[in-house]
Amino acid sequence: MTVYYTITFLLLAAEMGTFCVLVAPLPYAVRKRLLRFLSENPLIAKLAYALKITFIFVGVLFVDALQRMWRVTAEADLARNQGGTLHDARAETGFAARKFYAQRNTYLTGFCLFLSLVLTRTFYILLDLVHTQEEYAKLKQDTAKSSRDTIAAGDQSKQVAELKQRLAAAEKKARDYDILKKQAEQNQVEYDRLATEFNSKTGAVSDKRKD
Length: 211
Hints:
mainly alpha
């Protein structure tokens, strides 16, 4: 295996390991820290940029390997249609090796590109999931706080209503007391008038204290 296909194989193995780590049932706190590290670390950003360039070369290798596989397959079909047979064991072995290497390189580069797309999509889905869970937790806290405030406001409203009722009762008692006081004063005035009138007719002196 040449150097660039060896690098492609190592890249594929790294992608498989990263994918297994991402889809592993990790605790929420660990997953959150891991995704935040991968999305916010500047070194990871530079590494991701380098990997994008690497995947461009892997794509070129995939196209080349695909063309080689088609060429070998076309040569095999041509030899079969012409009725030719490979009697030489070395030639037959070499042809089979070329076909095997072409297919291997095609599958290797193809799976590497496909897994890179799957890995990228999985990473962003998990990142959105973590952000959604954070927003849900904040919304839950805000809802609980607003519920407590609503309950407190309801208690305050009840207290205000009760105080208003007490104030209304006190005002009613004060009005009743004022009415009774006025009635008592009016009765006293009327009594004095009648006593004065009675004394003036009878010629007696009115003693209000005794009366």
